[in-house]
């Protein structure tokens, strides 16, 4: 089964919570609650509803950006980018029991997050996507191959998920570069049936 992290997004059709619920119903075991620009109280309200849902589906729940809220709500972890709290500082607050993911766009980012004690890396973007503003340069397959071979040479072992504009058709080639999993949002939420699309992606041959 493909290792899949679903990233929530609000669309004209679905709320953040509905988006996560559909991914869970499709079998996804790893949800990132990402509510860009939403006030903290709103993130907290959705997280409080999502936490028991994830538990019911035996899925991991990580929050995008919000370290203190992750600690307060005792979710499973956080995902942090370059403009967020540094990973070593988040580790001091959260301790070892929480999962901390970091965003990397270059091998240098990988080294920095690895040394800071990240548990996994979201490397991207694979291609252009409208789900995130101010995107870093797209990596394409060559970008992943290059970063992963540099990681191998440097003996850096840490799980990697690819992210950014990924669709069902991209999955075999992306996994072939050596990444461990994928993080998706738009391709699931844009499908006619997001529950079935999640299931189809997870069971990709
Ligand atoms: C799995 C994963 N990878 C990368 C990101 C991007 O995080 P960040 O750079 O902090 O950007 P925002 O998501 O906060 O806009 C991610 N969220 N998840
Ligand atoms: C959060 C994030 N970080 C880099 S690309 C991206 C968005 C991923 O969503 P999509 O799968 O819709 O491109
Ligand atoms: Mg962030």
From TrEMBL:
The keyword Metal-binding applies. InterPro entries: Aldolase_TIM, ThiamineP_synth_sf, ThiamineP_synth_TenI, TMP_synthase. GO terms for molecular function: magnesium ion binding; thiamine-phosphate diphosphorylase activity. Binds 1 Mg(2+) ion per subunit. GO terms for biological process: thiamine biosynthetic process; thiamine diphosphate biosynthetic process. Pathway: Cofactor biosynthesis; thiamine diphosphate biosynthesis; thiamine phosphate from 4-amino-2-methyl-5-diphosphomethylpyrimidine and 4-methyl-5-(2-phosphoethyl)-thiazole: step 1/1. Its cofactor is Mg(2+). 4-amino-2-methyl-5-(diphosphooxymethyl)pyrimidine binds at residues 32-36, 64, 103, 132. GO terms for cellular component: cytoplasm. Its EC number is 2.5.1.3. The keyword Ubl conjugation does not apply. CDD domains: TMP_TenI. Residues 5-187 form the Thiamine phosphate synthase/TenI domain. Belongs to the thiamine-phosphate synthase family. Condenses 4-methyl-5-(beta-hydroxyethyl)thiazole monophosphate (THZ-P) and 2-methyl-4-amino-5-hydroxymethyl pyrimidine pyrophosphate (HMP-PP) to form thiamine monophosphate (TMP). This is Thiamine-phosphate synthase.
């Amino acid at each position: 089964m493909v290792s899949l992290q679903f990233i929530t997004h609000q669309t004209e059709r679905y709320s953040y919570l509905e988006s996560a619920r559909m991914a869970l119903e499709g079998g996804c075991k790893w949800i990132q609650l990402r509510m860009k620009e939403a006030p903290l109280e709103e993130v907290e309200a959705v997280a409080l509803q999502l936490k028991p849902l994830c538990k019911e589906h035996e899925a991991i729940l990580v929050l995008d950006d919000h370290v203190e809220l992750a600690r307060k709500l005792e979710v499973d972890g956080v995902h942090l980018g370059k403009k967020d709290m540094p990973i070593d500082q988040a580790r001091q607050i959260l301790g070892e029991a929480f999962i901390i993911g970091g965003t990397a766009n270059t091998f240098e980012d990988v080294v920095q997050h690895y040394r800071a004690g990240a548990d996994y890396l979201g490397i991207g973007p694979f291609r252009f996507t409208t789900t995130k503003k101010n995107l870093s340069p797209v990596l394409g397959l060559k970008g992943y191959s290059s970063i992963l071979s540099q990681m191998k040479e440097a003996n850096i072992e840490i799980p990697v998920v690819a992210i950014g504009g990924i669709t069902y058709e991209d999955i075999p080639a992306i996994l072939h570069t050596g990444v461990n999993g994928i993080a998706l949002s738009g391709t699931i939420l844009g499908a006619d049936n997001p529950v079935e699309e999640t299931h189809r992606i997870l069971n990709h041959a």
